[in-house]
Amino acid sequence: MDFGGDVLGYWGRNIIQEYDNVLFKKLPGHSGPLAGRQQTQQLPLSKVGFRKTAYPVGILGAGVGGLYTALMLDSMDIKYKILEVSDHAGGCLFTYKFPKGKEYDYYDVGAMRYPLPQKDSEGNYKTGIMKRLGELINYPKLNDGPEPLKSTLIDYYYKAREEGSFLYFNNECYQVSEVSHPPDFCAREMGVESEYVAVGVEKIVDDDVEPFARMLINDLEKQVNKGWEVMKANDAYMSFKYIPSVDLKLPPMHLTTNVINWCEMFDNSTSSYDRRLTEAVLETLAFTKADVETHASPCAMWQFSLGSTQHDLQHHSVCYP
User: Fold this and answer.
1) In this predicted model, what pLDDT tens digit does every residue of 213-243 receive, in sequence order?
2) Cβ atoms within 10 Å of 189's Cβ, excluding its own
């Protein structure tokens, strides 16, 4: 299977295969693991107890997983029934609309922007981490109505295209500019030394995760697992509990808790660094944060759904039979 730039898909498939190998070793006649990267074996299906029925397939929950399952069944003309305990579809993709708010006065608790792959000359999504999401958005039955799902996507910009975006931390406001430097946003009061402020959060974060991201991309390109083995060997470490490289010219010691909290404030959200290093690296690849210039990690087109993600799920998702 050609995974192209989908490093998550590549390693997801290999992790499943490794797990299957362990199970197959416990079965009679399957003493060893599968060779190389060949397709996972399938257990023979018994026809005993199988019979045609008029009952639909039951799907528990109308979250993204349940809705995607319904779409797969729908594409095979298999009847199904979605059982949802709440009053909305989408599960964790929940949109809060502010009382008496206007068109854009809402907040998406779950996913609300997507790094979709670039498109080819025929308008099809190229291989990439969220190619399946792009194909789902283009699914014909989700675009039959008066407001096609794909027509609701608009470009999402992390930074203002003119004049520069704004940063507001610790009661200090700064308009991003190419000719001026931002304040330290009370870094000293947070216990962060000036040498770390001078290097900046972006370079410190890249210094931590980019080497691992490059190794995983290299695995994908060369169909090897050296980078993944290195990643697993370092998975016991929490995010950003590392010694900066000499290139940053910072003290050769682990980052202090104050520096980590400072980086976390600018880069992500509270407690986001209280996780395994592997999660941080995979998120970097999924959201194209790492500066990995390779044909296997093409520049993504950041887009979001106009009118909120949950609205589109409820409006466009396969109806409950």
Assistant:
1) 889 888 888 888 899 899 888 888 777 777 8
2) 9
Res. 86: pLDDT tops 90:
no
Contact 115/125 with Cβ under 8 angstroms?
no
Write down the pTM of the prediction: 0.66
**What pLDDT does residue 258 have?**
92
C-alpha–C-alpha distance, residues 29 and 85, integer Å: 44
Residue 280, CA atoms < 13 Å, CB-side half-sphere: 27
Give the length of the chain: 321
Read off the amino acid at residue 288: T
